[in-house]
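User: Continuing from earlier, I have the next pair ready.

Assistant: Great, send them over.

User: Here they are, in order.

Assistant: Folding the first of the pair now:
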Amino acid sequence: MAAGALVPALLLGAGNDPARDVLPPPAPRSVASVGALFVDDFKDGKLDGWTPDRPGVWTIRHGLLRAELPDEKQQRAFLYAGSEQWKDYAVDLDVCATRGVDKGVVVRVTGQQGIGVDLRGPGYQDVVMYRREWPMGRARTVNGNGVWHHLRVEAKGTRFRVFVNGDLMLDRSDTRNTNPSGKIAIPAYTGGVGECTVYYDNVVVTPLR
C-alpha cells in the first residue's frame, strides 16, 4: 500500500496469532556515521527523539524497534523523528518483517505528507515510491519475510534515489518540488493482507552535500 499519505487510524484489538511472537534473526551490526543528523540503534531501550501518531504500536524488544498492528486490513501507524527543516539527506535503516508485506520509510515529511518508499514482500517482491497518493516509481526486488534488508533513501533537491541491499532500484525526480524539506517517518502497514509485525534497526540520517 502507498506510503505517501500519512493518515492515522484507530487501534483495534490484536489477535492471538502465535506468529506475532516469532523473533527475527540477529540484526546487522550498526556502523557509526560521522556527522549524522540522527542515529538510533535502539540498544538503550528508549524511544527518545521519536513521536508516534498512535499508541500501542511501537515498542523496543531485544534491542530492536518493533511495530505490531491488529489483524485488520488497511491499518497503519507512523513513528516520526527529525526536523521539518531538514532538506538534503539520506536515510539508512535495516528492516525485517515477520508478518505481512509492507515496510519502508517516509522522507521529507511535513505535516501529514511526505515521499514514501514501500518495500513490499510476499506476493509483490518490489519496491515502490509515492509522492502523497501519486506513484513515482516501482522496481522488482526480492525481499522475503524473516530476513533483514538494508534500505537507503536519498533526497537531494528534487531527486530521490532508493537502494535496496546496496543496489540502486529507483532514481526519480519530483519536478514540482512538492516536498523540499521535512523529517522522517517509519511506517507500519497491514495493507490488504490484514497483518503486520515488523522490526527496524540501525536508523541513520546523514546530510547530503
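And the other member of the pair:
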Amino acid sequence: MILAGIDEAGYGPILGPLLVASAAVRLPGPLPANCNAIPDVWKALRKSVTADRATAGKIQIADSKKVYSPGKGLATLEANVLTLLATMPFTSAGGLPAAQSLGDVLSQTAATHVADISALPWYAPSPHEPFPLEASRSGIAMRANVLRAEIAANHVELVRYQASVVTEWVYNQLVDKTRNKASALFFYVSRHLDEIVRQHASEGLWVVCDRQGGRSHYGDLLRMLFEGWDLTIEEESSTVGHYLLRKKSQLARISFAEKGETLSLPTAAASMLCKYLREALMHRFNGWWCPQQPGLKPTAGYYTDGIRWLADTATLRESLGTAQDRLIRSR
C-alpha cells in the first residue's frame, strides 16, 4: 500500500511564498480496513528515524514546528529534509543528494514552479549561495546511508516528495479569482491529492492531510474533485474526517485530521519540506533586499514584522518601481 501526507507552510504571512507539499511511502501489506489504524512508519524505521529530537545516527521526522525554530537555525531541518531526498531515485551512487544547490532541490521537488520563482528577482540565487545553507554535507551522507539501509530492510520506499511553491504574484492572482484565501490553499492541496490518487490508488492508498482551517466536512469537495468515484464517509468529527474512494479496483482513503503530522510520517515529512523551502527562499529574499538598504533588518514575512519591513522599505521599493501585487500578498 501507499501512505501519503499533505501539509502547508506560510499560510499566514504577508510576504514570501505559500508552500504546499506532499510525501508518500510504499509499505508492505494492504490498506487497513480500520480508518483509525494509520500505519506507524516511525515504528517501522525506529532504528534511524524518530519523531522526537534527532540523535546521533537518527533523523527527526516531525511537525516542522518541532524541528525548526528561528533560534535553533535551519541546520537540523535542512539536514533531515536533504537526508530524505537522498533516498529518492535521483540520488547519486556515492550516497550524497544529487542536488548540488538549492536550485537543484527546487528542480527535483517543485519543477513546475521554477519559472514562477525565477520571475521574481528577490528569489534569484546569489553567486556565492552556500549549499547546504547551514547543514553538514558529511552528516547528511552518513544519515542517508543508515536510513537507506533500514528502508530496504523493512521494505519501505519513499516514492514522492513534491512541493507547490506559490509565489506572491501567483497567490494574488488566485485569490482574486476565488475571492477566498482558504479556497486558494485548497486549490493546491487538491492538486496534490489528484496526482497522488491517480498515481497510487491502484496499490491501495491512504492520504493524511492536515485539517484545512476550520473546515470539518470534506465530502462535497471530494465528490467534486473525484467525479466518477464512489465515496463513503467513514467518520466525521470535530477533529478528523475519513473518506473512502472506490473506482473499480482502485481504493483510496483520504483523511483530514488535526495535527496530522503527529499521526502520519509522510504528513510530517511534507510539513518539513514546506518549511525548509519557505525558509530557504526567505533567505534569498533577505539576501536580495538587505544589501540594497544598509541597516535593513531581515524579515520572516509574518504580519507584524512584515508591516514593519514594508514601512522600512517604502522609499527603496518606490525607487525600484516594485509592483505591490508582485511582492505583497493581498490577503
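Worth noting for the second one:
The beta strands are 2-9, 18-26, 49-50, 59-60, 157-166, 205-210, 230-236, 240-247, 250-257. The chain has 13 helices and nine strands.
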